[in-house]
Amino acid sequence: MNQAVDALAERAIREHWEFAPTAGSRIGRHEYDGRLPDFSSGRVARRIEELHRSLGQLSALPASDGPATDDETQMDRLSRSLLEMFLRRELFNLEEMRSLHNNPQRQVGYIGVGSYVQRDYASLPDRLRSATAVLHQVPDFLATLDGLTEPELGEPVRDMAVEAYRGMASFYRTGLAAASSECAAIAPDVVAEFDAARETAAIAVTEFTARLQARQTLPDFAIGRDLYRRMLQVGEGVDTPLLDVLSIGQANLERNLRRLDEAAALVAPGKSVREAVAQIAANHPTSDALIPETRDMLEDIRQALINHDIISVPSEERCQVTETPSYMRYAFAAMDSPGGLEEIATEAFYYVTPVEPEWTPRQQEEWLTNFNYHTLQIVSVHEVYPGHYVHNLHNRYIGSGERRTLPLINRVATSYAFTEGWAHYTEEMMLETEYGRDNPALWLTQLLEALVRNCRYLCSLGMHTQGMTVDEATKFFQAHAYMEEHPARREALRGTFDPGYLNYTLGKLMLLKLRQDWRRQEGSDYSLRRFHDATLSWGAPPVPLLRQAMLNEPGDAIL
Q1: Co-location of 157 and 43 in the same domain
Q2: Is the pTM value of this prediction over 0.70?
Q3: CB under 8 Å to 316, separation ≥6 — which residues?
Q4: Among 112, 118, 132, CA closest to 187
């Protein structure tokens, strides 16, 4: 990498971690453990000055020399563009989107200490000391947020923030109890301080939640067209006009609905889509078999990647399939991969949420239908093979255990659309291979997952740029993703504070177009595995930047 750009990137990233030490800690730089950000107005103003200064210094540096086809030159150019977008994205969030002022839900993650409990990078007493240090800072952190948060918030944004902070207070009191018990015999003094700190922090969060609840609300929560356009431009490098983005998403929804009817007719001839779905849902693991059968399924999918030459699997490491921790059981299943710079706690966890013993037999059966074998396959493709987990392996290894050396900025500056788009893309891609071909039940299940993401895409645009209400978005999910009212409303509410959740489908569509264009360019040298390995070799950059690196004629990312 260009040494001047490299030095500027390292300094800019250190400044970012000093401003948001939680980000440094979670990526694997444990010297930032135990610290919360200072979001006081003076510190934010200084951070804005730092960002403007770094952008000015970057623009003054000469461009990389070398032929456009040279891999090293392409990496230099991509990394420089990544650094610029990294700086502009943070500046956009602070100056234009202003989420510190109008979206308190976005800050709840800073006060989470689950990673200290879960990841074994140091002794448990040392990790609890770091968690305790964070908990001690929670009251002051929330007091600062109180002063920043606008007196009136969009009603659904306020309500979702209230729910999130209530959940965090509960997590402090109950979700951390197991770690406290585990450490009690080893370091009772550490545990005593930890327990006192988590109760004090829980009280502070509860009081902050009450103050949030008391704030006035506005009916309008939309960020508006200008900010939405800027969000796509600055965050993902997408300059496509919003009406074109909308029409592309609508066309993909209609295509998937047609294909869903075709798949349902193959699964359950003469029956409705809902009847076909119910037929698939009835075939699921038992409660006791859920974890071991998921583990076996992962091995089958992993072997299929190798047998069918779909993608390189650059390590013999396996993720650990385990029950979802108590504080995360709102999730159906989730991948917890190590941070991009983690050197010690490199284990990865695939969390699968079991039935709870206090549930009735009917509730347990209803939950397990969500884990029917075909849904479990699609979710495992997305989360593990070849989705998020394999992406993480490619960022860490070249092959046979050899460590990959990506520029620091490529490890730190990741794209929402690439990260989630890649995982979502793999669901559809696996249906094209020998692994998933001619399996209508798996096809139908994958399409249902795609339709949820289609609705996120269109409801995000609708609610933030077209005047769609939460009620209208709820009905949209019900009508087009075959969801019941409660989960449909939850999906709609998420879009009020996370307009970027269109990125699952947006990223997938951009990757599909990149594959099509790269295949045309490579001709007889093209293979699916070559495309996948090349795509993951750059980190997780915005797809338009990836196109500039991989294609001789980049063109538009989605048109």
Answers
A1: yes
A2: yes
A3: 401
A4: 132
Share of the chain above pLDDT 90, in %: 86
Tell me the C-alpha distance between 371 and 175, whole Å: 24
Q: Quote the domain boundaries for residue 173.
A: 3-218
Token pair listed for 48 = 């804005």
Asked, for residue 39, whether it belongs to a domain, the answer is yes
Per DSSP, the three-state class of 321 is: strand
Q: What is the CA radius of gyration of the chain?
A: 23
> Residue 278: inside a domain, yes or no?
yes
The H or E element that residue 85 is part of is: helix 71-92
6/319 Cα distance (integer angstroms)? 32
Is residue 452 scored above 90 in pLDDT? yes
What is the per-residue DSSP string for 469-520?
Answer: -HHHHHHHHHHHH---HHHHHHHHHHHHH-GGGGHHHHHHHHHHHHHHHHHH
Reduced to 3 states (helix: H, G, I; strand: E, B; else coil), residue 402 is: strand
Is 198 in contact with 209 (CB distance < 8 Å)? no
Do 214 and 243 have their domain in common?
no
List the alpha helices (DSSP H) in 108-184: 114-118, 124-148, 155-170, 177-184
List, in sequence order, the alpha helices (H) in 215-328: 225-236, 242-267, 273-281, 290-307
**Is 247 in contact with 558 (CB distance < 8 Å)?**
no
Half-sphere exposure (Cβ direction) of 498: Cα atoms closer than 13 Å: 18
Mean pLDDT for the chain?
94
Q: How confident is the model at residue 494 (pLDDT cuts 50, 70, 90)?
A: very high
Q: What is the DSSP letter of 284?
A: -
Is residue 61 predicted with pLDDT exceeding 60? yes
Considering the domain boundaries, does residue 313 fall inside one?
no
Residue from 115, 133, 129 nearest 189 by CA: 129
pLDDT, residue 327, reads 57
Same domain as 211, residue 79: yes
Tokens of 19: 């401003």
Intra-chain end-to-end CA distance of the chain, in Å:
31
Cβ atoms of 353 and 333 closer than 8 Å: yes
The overall longest dimension of the chain from CA atoms, in Å, is 67
DSSP strand pairing (349-352 vs 320-323): parallel
Same domain? 146 vs 254: no
pLDDT at 480 exceeding the cut of 80: yes
Name the burial class of residue 175, with classes exposed (0-12), middle (13-18) and buried (19+) by CB atoms within 10 angstroms of its CB.
Answer: buried
How many distinct structural domains can be found in the chain?
2
> 56: buried, middle or exposed (CB in 10 Å: 19+, 13-18, 0-12)?
exposed
Same domain for 275 and 417? yes
Q: Are 32 and 129 within one domain?
A: yes
Last residue of a domain, one of 188, 218, 248: 218
| Beta strands at 152-154 and 216-218: parallel, antiparallel or unpaired | parallel
Question: Helices marked H in 308-439 — which ranges?
Answer: 361-369, 373-383, 388-396, 408-412, 416-430
